[in-house]
Design brief:
The protein is an alpha+beta fold. The chain contains 19 helices and 33 strands.
Length: 823
């Protein structure tokens, strides 16, 4: 803006203020060029004429003069008038009459009349009133600095804070503020002076030299002041104390961050650790959380007001946190649980203590009791000048406390700080109580899960097996993984690994139902694909029961998380006689095979749909395994750990199998090395691993004969069996085995016809098998006294450790097992 343009803002500036000189009779004596411009009337046309002729209505002359009544002749007076413009229109002006006494040569007094457009006069008066009132108010600090940033004018103290001088004229900010605080403001004000760019919203903390406490937070706004010629003359600044606003915002932000930390975990320990990390040092120099011991194990804190709860310091953070970790794990001062009828039973209030350095240390209780000694909890941090604590209460029961200490130059807490701590403690109590309940449920689920799993290690004639189960972390919850080693007939064994979707008690309970179903189906000696088909139908039925519309039957079934497809399963049957392993998968990852030559490969199988889909077939795969091979069955938690794709996880598992030396070490030792360090972070899903080293039944321990369908061969069968038992040094079993073989061969010849195969297998038991071409399953019944037959299977059952039958591709096989005599 040019100087001539800026001068238009000043109504009585010499360059743009109209002026006229009148004599005592009201005649125009002189007329300035500014007046000619304002009214567009030349001086020659105006001078010598009465001033009333300049009015738009000459008859209003008396009314114009009447405006000066009571304003005093000596000081002059002001008014407004409507003048006739040179163009003929009326122009409203504001004017001021200034008497000029003592005229030259004894002439009568004259009057200087200054005038300007009424709009300009009104604006000038508004600006003047605004500036005047602005410097009179005291809600915000207003200051005018010269070019050297010396104070020229202020409306009040710049800060409502002790240490600011009363007289500020000519002073610099560094004369009463900390040098660093003054430098920050001076640098920004100097930028405004040089650049002319206003300063908007500078938030800074200022401390006075005389009172260097927490200081005050001010917002600084500034703009440059310029001379009429455009040169900078200084800077005007507005200082607004926003300490209370900023502290309220900081409290809200702290409450927001604390709430976020409390919602980040379902672990009691991790919840309180995350909380103290947020509070220290943002809210206090040191923070600690103490909890009742029962909370850690998921137990319910006692609500009896006569009891006290020993507290354990669970989490600390801050500069003096090491002082809180020293000593015993138990915190010295117990927390009294308030009775339901006491005043403390109705509300959980915090406690604020200041001036700890001036109080003697006490052994507990309130700081205001007795000799006003500070309680033990308040003096736990050396050098703390103040402390505040708030109890952790949930459902009317106290089970811990949250404590903060402030040291050094930190400001002592106020009642607002205590109210904030109480609010955080209330939210923390809910979060900790939820985590406690979850811990209780998780411990129950883990206990139930482990009780439903088989022994971790087992020795069978077919395999040496070792299993391992790792539950997911506290945030994810216990899942529905399981493994099983099921002994079958003829020294065979079934290996099972499954995974129920979801976490929690419902997944664990569903796992128990599925494991029982698989075991029941395994007793039927079904092929792997047929067994999975039957289990799939059962899962569909479970899901159907869970969707019952009967409101009184809401607990009839346990719903499978994730819809019908709620579980995966791998079922494998290994035969140590044929050295083959038949398997089928219901949406489960393939097993890994570690061959005796040290190579690792995954079985190529086509996984069917997960259990619960229904209506889809499962494809079997059969593979021959050399003796000493290690079969590794697992759940997806072992290969899906958030580190990459499944292929990467499977390659990593193969490397771990080799590094753990599963071929040369006992599997019960190698299993731990395989999962060591898994995962690098927290377990997001359960990890289940089942290792099985294959064994074989040597040919010398197997005897097989093919018999004709002639009753006369029953005697031959008895002789063959007796001779074989003598060769195996099992004469103690000759009598029972002779009867078993006689009854089973007789039944096979009588009811099935065709050739009969007799096989003896010596493993951990003596197995006797009779195979024929009939598909009719034998049934044991109670024979009447008058009947000559019908007691054969009863005799077999009495002489056998266990017995049964299974279907084969060519008919059926009836088998009997007897326990070998002790060595």
């Amino acid at each position: 803006m040019r100087a001539t343009e800026r001068n238009q803002d000043y109504p009585f500036a010499v360059t743009n203020t109209a002026a006229a000189l009148l004599d005592g009779a009201g005649t125009v004596v002189a007329w300035t060029r500014a007046a000619e411009t304002l009214l567009e009337r030349r001086s020659a046309d105006v001078c010598g004429r009465p001033a009333r002729d300049l009015l738009a209505d000459p008859g209003s002359w008396e009314a114009v003069l009447a405006q000066g009544a009571g304003q005093g002749d000596r000081a002059g007076w002001e008014g407004r008038a409507s003048l006739r413009h040179g163009s003929g229109r009326a122009l409203e002006i504001g004017f001021r009459v200034v008497p000029l006494t003592g005229g030259a040569h004894g002439n009568a007094a004259r009057f200087l009349v200054l005038g300007a457009a009424l709009e300009l006069v009104a604006r000038w008066r508004q600006d003047n009133a605004f500036t005047h009132e602005l410097f009179l108010q005291g809600r915000v600090g207003l200051a005018v600095f010269d070019r050297d940033l010396r104070l020229l004018r202020t409306n009040s103290h710049l800060l409502p804070y002790t240490g600011v001088p009363v007289e500020l004229y000519g002073r610099r900010l560094a004369d009463f503020l900390w040098a660093e605080d003054a430098r920050i403001i001076d640098d920004r004000l100097r930028d405004v002076v040089h650049s002319g760019i206003p300063l908007v919203g500078l938030n800074t903390t200022v401390h006075t030299i005389d009172d260097p406490r927490a200081g005050r937070i001010v917002t600084v706004q500034a703009f440059r002041l310029q001379e009429p010629d455009g040169h900078p003359m200084g800077v005007a600044a507005v200082f607004t104390d926003v300490t209370d606003h900023e502290r309220a915002r900081e409290r809200l932000d702290l409450l927001y961050r604390a709430t976020g930390a409390l919602g980040g975990s379902l672990s009691v320990l991790r919840t309180v650790e995350d909380l103290v990390k947020v509070l220290a040092p943002a809210f206090g120099d040191c923070a600690a959380v103490d909890l009742a011991e029962t909370v850690l194990t998921g137990g319910e804190p006692p609500a009896d007001g006569q009891l006290t709860l020993p507290l354990i310091r669970m989490a600390v953070a801050g500069a003096e946190s090491e002082a809180l970790r020293t000593g015993t794990a138990r915190f010295a001062a117990p927390l009294a649980t308030p009775g339901p009828d006491g005043p403390e039973g109705r509300e959980c209030k915090g406690e604020l203590i200041t001036g700890l350095g001036d109080r003697p240390a006490g052994s507990g209780g309130s700081a205001g009791s007795g000799d006003d000694a500070a309680p033990a909890w308040a003096t736990a941090v050396p050098g703390a000048h103040s402390a505040m604590t708030a109890p952790l209460c949930a459902r009317g029961i106290r089970f811990g406390r949250l404590t903060l200490w402030r040291t050094g130059d930190a400001a002592a807490p106020e009642e607002d700080d205590l109210a904030l701590l109480e609010e955080i403690a209330a939210r923390a109590a809910v979060a900790v109580d939820n985590a406690r309940r979850y811990t209780k449920e998780r411990r129950t689920a883990v206990g139930l899960q482990r009780s439903l799993l088989p022994p971790a290690t087992s020795e069978k004639p077919a395999v040496e097996a070792a299993g391992l189960y790792l539950p997911a972390d506290a945030d994810s919850g216990v899942g529905g993984d399981w493994f099983d080693v099921i002994p079958l007939s003829s020294a065979r064994v079934a290996l099972v690994v499954g995974d129920v979707a979801g976490h929690g008690l419902h997944a664990t309970a569903m796992m128990g139902r599925l494991r029982s179903a698989v075991r029941a189906m395994a007793d039927l000696e079904l092929e792997p694909e047929e067994l999975l088909a039957h289990v799939d139908d059962m899962v569909v039925q479970f899901a159907s029961e869970a969707e019952s519309d009967d409101p009184d039957d809401t607990d009839a079934g346990l719903p499978l998380p994730g819809g019908p497809a709620g579980a995966t399963c791998l079922y494998a049957v290994y035969d140590p006689v044929t050295r083959t392993c038949a398997m089928a998968s219901a949406g489960h990852p393939p097993p890994a095979v570690v061959s005796p030559d040290g190579t690792v490969e995954y079985v190529e199988l086509s996984p069917g749909p997960p259990l619960g889909v229904g209506g889809w077939p499962f494809e079997p795969v059969e593979r021959e395994l050399p003796p000493g091979s290690v079969l590794a069955l697992y759940t997806d938690g072992l290969i899906e750990r958030g580190e990459g794709d499944i292929d990467h996880g499977m390659r990593d598992l193969a490397d771990r199998l080799l590094r753990s030396d599963v071929l040369g070490r006992p599997l019960r030792q190698a299993r731990h090395d395989i999962v060591e360090g898994l995962p690098p972070g927290r377990l997001r899903d359960d990890v289940t691993l089942l290792l099985a080293r294959t064994r074989v039944v040597e040919a010398a321990s197997i005897a097989t004969w093919l018999l004709d369908a002639d009753p006369a061969v029953v005697a031959d069968a008895r002789h063959l069996v007796l001779a074989q038992l003598t060769a195996w040094d099992l004469d103690e079993l000759s009598f029972s085995t002779e009867l078993i073989v006689s009854e089973l061969v007789t039944n096979a010849i009588r009811y099935a016809g065709g050739p009969v195969r007799l096989r003896l297998i010596r493993a951990d038991t003596l197995t006797c098998e009779i195979s024929d071409s009939s598909n009719t399953q034998p049934r044991m019944r109670r024979a009447r006294n008058s009947e000559e037959g019908g007691r054969g299977l009863y005799i077999v059952a009495q002489l056998s450790h266990r017995w049964g039958s299974r279907y084969t591709m060519g008919g059926k096989t009836v088998w009997s097992e007897q326990t070998l005599p002790h060595a």
